[in-house]
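Course exercise 7: structure representation. Students receive a sequence record and must write out the corresponding structure in token form. The form below is the worked example handed out in class, using Peptidase inhibitor family I36 (118 residues). Read each field label carefully; the graders check that inputs and outputs are placed in the correct fields and that the protein name is recorded exactly as given.

STUDENT ID: A-19
EXERCISE PROTEIN: Peptidase inhibitor family I36
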Amino acid sequence: MSMLTKSLAAVAVTGALLGGAFATPAAAADPNTCPKGKVCGWSGKNRTGTRTVLSVEPGCYPFTAARSVSNQTSYRIEFWHITPGTGCGYGTRLITLKAHTYSNDPGGTVTGIGVNAK
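STUDENT ANSWER:
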């Protein structure tokens, strides 16, 4: 093989390797996990279906109807099925999750959350 042929082959291999590295999309976030520091809910049990992700601080929040939930914050969070037209504390408290825990079936449909200070 001539020096020119070897050089061209090396450039082609390097280009293919680099091109492949840049062309490969970044790994998508797993839709069955909840990012660190967030509260998540899924429309289905066992963390399936559509995922909702929230950033929270202590307080009360409405929540998209969820059948499984995850608390990846440093707070203790109460998950509620809120009575329509009311707010947190009115309805049925389904489950309370400590920091960095989840529930594949909180016992009903979550429609609101209460975020408690650490």
